[in-house]
Amino acid sequence: MPSSLQCQEKLHVAIIMDGNGRWATARGLARAAGHEAGIEALRRVVRAAPDENISILTVYAFSSDNWKRPESEVAALLDLFRRFLDSETEDLVRDGIKLSIVGRRDRLPQDLVCEIERVEAATEWGDLLHLRVALDYSARDMIVEAAKKAAASGELSRDSLTAALGAPDVDLLIRSSGEQRLSDFLLWECAYAELHFSPKPWPDFAASDLKEAMASFHHRERRFGALQAA
Ligand code: FPP
């Protein structure tokens, strides 16, 4: 697709916010301090996203495999999500940001589920940016559940599965901290995503890094399996 057309498009960008732990350890801090600093980086990116024509931003905050981490780190992360939801609602509503949590809810503490429902209801009319936070998320599990839902409705197809998953294809996937893998994130939605790997740990990720990733995205030619336009 010509880059001029790509420029006008509203984009779905996904981010694997990796490297919080290493960032903290390198500074002699507890890993939880890295996650705290990760929230600041998320705020920077959310503020910068609308100017980059991003209408949907999906971020990976806690994978279903993250339950395998030490109990203390899991507790610190859940507490951080609680505090984030509690402190952010007013700003999200003011800034026109709709917040959704994607992933399983049946294993989250009940008070966190209530807080999620409260913030989702409060922000549901936000139309500047849709911020989707993946919590207890596994793309494989999501695909299985979506396939069951689509099949039960009588039509199992690409479109019905995409609809059941609840988000359009990802245009650009960013991963911080130098790792180059998908880690069970948005596997269906990323079928034709462009990939951008940043060496920076997530807490150091700045608005300028998002800008750089978007600039690189706009220089790519996306052919979706077809040939270059004449
Ligand atoms: C991966 O880094 C990051 C996480 C498992 C947690 C991500 C959470 C945040 C950025 C906090 C803010 C999010 C919200 C929505 C409040 P890692 O711990 O695996 O880092 P490492 O690979 O260096 O150990």
What does this protein look like?
36% of the residues are buried. Helix 6 (139-152) crosses helix 7. This protein has one domain (4-218): Undecaprenyl pyrophosphate synthetase (3-Layer(aba) Sandwich). By secondary structure, the protein is of the alpha/beta class. It has eight helices and six strands, in the order H-E-H-H-E-H-E-H-E-H-H-E-E-H. Strand 3 (97-102), helix 5 and strand 4 (129-137) form a beta-alpha-beta unit. The longest helix has 24 residues, at 71-94. The chain has helices at residues 3-8, 20-26, 31-48, 71-94, 110-123, 139-152, 158-165, 207-218; strands spanning 11-16, 54-63, 97-102, 129-137, 172-175, 194-197. It has a six-stranded parallel beta sheet with strand order 3-4-2-1-5-6, sandwiched between helices. The protein binds farnesyl diphosphate. Farnesyl diphosphate binds at residues 17-22, 35, 38-39, 42, 61-62, 66, 80-81, 84, 133, 202.
Secondary structure layout:
Blueprint: H1 3-8, E1 11-16, H2 20-26, H3 31-48, E2 54-63, H4 71-94, E3 97-102, H5 110-123, E4 129-137, H6 139-152, H7 158-165, E5 172-175, E6 194-197, H8 207-218
Parallel strand pairs: 1-2, 1-5, 2-4, 3-4, 5-6
Helix pairs in contact: 2-3, 3-4, 4-5, 6-7
Summarize the structure.
Helix content is 45%, strand content 17%. The protein has 230 residues and is an alpha/beta fold. It has a six-stranded parallel sheet with strand order 3-4-2-1-5-6, sandwiched between helices.
